[in-house]
Structures are given as C-alpha cells and as structure tokens.
C-alpha cells in the first residue's frame, strides 16, 4: 500500500501540505491551534476533506485567533453549525471553543502553547495521549499522534527516503533536537 510520501507529491491538494507543512516545527500558537482543530475535525473523515475546507475553517474561526475563539458564545456556535464550509459537528465545534480557552490558560501559565508542548517533550505517545486527554476535549490517540507528528514533536511524518524528511531534520524538530 502506498503511503502519504508516495501519494501526496502528485496530488494538487496534498502536495503543498506534504512538502511544506507536514512534520515541520510550528512556532506560532495560532498555527498550532489551527493544526489541533484540523486534526480534531478530521476524525472520521479524510484528510483531503479537511484540506479542501481549510480556507473555510480559517474564515469561520477568525484565522484561528485563540483569544477570539475562546470568547465565542452561543451565537457563534449556531453560526458555525450552519456554516456548510466547515464540518458541522456540535461536539467538534464545542471542543474547538473549549480548547481555545484551555490554551489561553496554558499561555498564561507557560508563556505559550508551544512552551507547554516543549515542557512535556519528550514523552512517548501513550503519555502524550494521557496529557492531552486530561487537558483538552476530543483528543484521542490518533488525533494526538497526528497533531504531534504534523508539528514536529513526534517522528514519522515522512519516510526517511522522502526528500522532505531531510528538510524537516534541518529545521531541528523537537523529536530530532537533543538540545530540547
């Protein structure tokens, strides 16, 4: 069976994500939040569906500005539930709003969401899953694994013979950086 490194480079939607984002370290908290929200919304769906809806997600969630999303009220929930451009699942929408509030708390306590992730690194996947389940909503093992791989905290986003792998290693992702 072909994997992402085989299929993505010839695909008009997957290729930009595969070549320029997947597995690279993410520094910005709003970008980390976006990745978490997209992974949560992918549950039960294809990644292609999520990538195709990414622009609509950005618009619907105010560019994934954490403080803005954390402040969403019932009118925003209803707006999101009627937005055909995104995944209209109440549990996922509620988790997004709740998780934004949690990240605000993490930022207050640790300085940033990224600093909170760095504080817990390195952990094996099972421990990461426990930490995420204690901290966030709608974060099962697959969501946590993909989030951490996609943001450079766990290895495995690309095969070692994939040309993108070497570019990622050069960026010193958390999983490859022994100084963290």
UniProtKB/TrEMBL annotation:
Regions that span the bilayer: none
Keywords: Metal-binding, Zinc
GO BP annotations, alphabetical order: base-excision repair
Gene Ontology MF terms: DNA-3-methyladenine glycosylase activity; metal ion binding
InterPro entries membership: Adenine_glyco, DNA-3mA_glycosylase, DNA_glycosylase
Residues reported in the UniProt entry to bind Zn(2+): 5, 18, 158, 162
Xref: SUPFAM superfamilies: DNA-glycosylase
Highest taxon above the source species: Bacteria
Family matches, as PANTHER family: DNA-3-METHYLADENINE GLYCOSYLASE 1, DNA-3-METHYLADENINE GLYCOSYLASE I
Protein name: DNA-3-methyladenine glycosylase I
The species this protein was found in: Modicisalibacter xianhensis
Source lineage: Bacteria, Pseudomonadati, Pseudomonadota, Gammaproteobacteria, Oceanospirillales
């Amino acid at each position: 069976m072909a994997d992402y490194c085989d299929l993505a480079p010839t695909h008009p939607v997957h290729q930009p994500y595969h070549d320029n984002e997947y597995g690279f370290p993410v520094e910005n908290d709003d970008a980390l939040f976006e990745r978490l929200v997209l992974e949560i919304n992918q549950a039960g769906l294809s990644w292609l569906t999520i990538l195709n809806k990414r622009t609509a997600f950005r618009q619907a969630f105010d560019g994934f500005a954490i403080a803005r999303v954390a402040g969403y009220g019932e009118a925003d929930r209803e707006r999101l539930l009627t937005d055909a451009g995104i995944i209209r699942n109440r549990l996922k929408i509620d988790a997004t709003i709740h998780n934004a509030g949690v990240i605000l708390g993490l930022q207050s306590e640790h300085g940033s969401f990224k600093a909170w992730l760095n504080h817990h690194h390195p952990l094996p996947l099972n421990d990461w899953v426990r930490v995420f389940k204690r901290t966030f909503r709608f974060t099962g093992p697959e969501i946590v694994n993909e989030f951490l791989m996609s943001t450079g905290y766990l290895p495995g986003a690309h095969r070692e013979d994939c040309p993108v792998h070497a570019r990622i290693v050069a960026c010193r992702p958390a999983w490859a950086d022994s100084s963290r």
